[in-house]
Amino acid sequence: MTTTLSNTRRYATLRAEPLTRHIGAEISGIDITQPLDAAQVRDLQQALADHQVIFFRDQPFELDAQKAFGRHFGPLHIHPGAPSPEGHPEILRIHADANSKYIAGENWHSDVSCDAEPPLGSILHLHTVPPQGGDTLFASMYAAYDALSDRLQQYLDGLTATHDGDHVYRGRFKNYGAADTGKVYPRSSHPVVRTHPVTGRKALFVNPGFTTHIDGIPPKESAALLAFLYEHSTQPEFVVRFRWKAHSVAFWDNRCTQHLAVWDYRPAVRSGYRVTIQGDTPR
Ligand code: SIN
């Protein structure tokens, strides 16, 4: 069993203030709504690698600027089901108001982990926030893996789990004009423990949103093990809770975190846009 400490590295073009021992940093000293130079992009990549989720204040993105920011980190992902604003297929609208029946991300999940190549990361800008509530929680799946016993780590290493989009997305977007009769949503099998392609660290890669079962073991054993891993990985020590203000931005790494959006503000409005960066095959 090992423990991790948030990295307090200094960066040439920005400042990063770690928010917890394991995960999350607030970034200042950079305007991400404007074109960035190579040194700024390198520092942001490093800050994301160091902290897993980075937060920014006072960044009033237009959609084109948000997409341009996202493209510094890779090609943009197009959501398998959600409709997008006219002319912006790479944008996912995140919106809740008094009439909402559900919100995006109200269960712990890693974005679209049902994809064969799940997204590298996601960048969410909220332009409208409720007066209270509407926080987002992010859990470090590195810290969760590191805190397991050596014996459980060894057991999990090499197992795979199935991640299914159907139960998450089916019927969900019909109020927005996106009928999905006959549509096939992604379903993929991924390692339960993945190695981050940038940091080389191991992270648990299962989440209650998409993961349906661990492959090749009895269903009851899979359910019990997943229930333990979900509870273990979302314990408060491994979690940072972000309090939004209008024009805050959160940029998270889906390869080593999962997150949950708290819906405690109805009937208030919470609204913004997400761009999502394409990822690779988990290994
Ligand atoms: C999401 O899962 O992308 C939504 C997160 C949030 O609204 O805070």
How would the blueprint of this fold be written?
Elements: E1 15-18, E2 25-28, H1 38-51, E3 53-56, H2 63-71, E4 91-96, E5 121-128, E6 136-140, H3 141-146, H4 150-156, E7 160-164, H5 166-169, E8 187-191, E9 193-195, E10 202-204, E11 211-214, H6 219-233, E12 239-242, E13 248-253, E14 257-261, E15 270-277
This protein binds succinic acid (SIN).
Characteristic terms for this protein:
283 residues, alpha+beta, Double-stranded beta-helix, seven-stranded mixed sheet, 6 helices, 26% strand, globular, disordered N terminus, binds succinic acid
Please explain how this structure is put together:
This protein has 283 residues and is α+β, with helices and mostly antiparallel strands. The protein has one domain (10-277): Double-stranded beta-helix, CATH 3.60.130.10. Helix content is 19%, strand content 26%. It has helices at residues 38-51, 63-71, 141-146, 150-156, 166-169, 219-233, and strands at 15-18, 25-28, 53-56, 91-96, 121-128, 136-140, 160-164, 187-191, 193-195, 202-204, 211-214, 239-242, 248-253, 257-261, 270-277. The strands form four sheets. The protein has a seven-stranded mixed beta sheet, with helices on one face. Strands 12-6-14 form a three-stranded antiparallel beta sheet. It is globular. The model is unreliable at 1-6 (pLDDT under 50). The structure holds succinic acid. Succinic acid binds at residues 94, 104-105, 111, 122, 124, 136, 259, 261, 274.
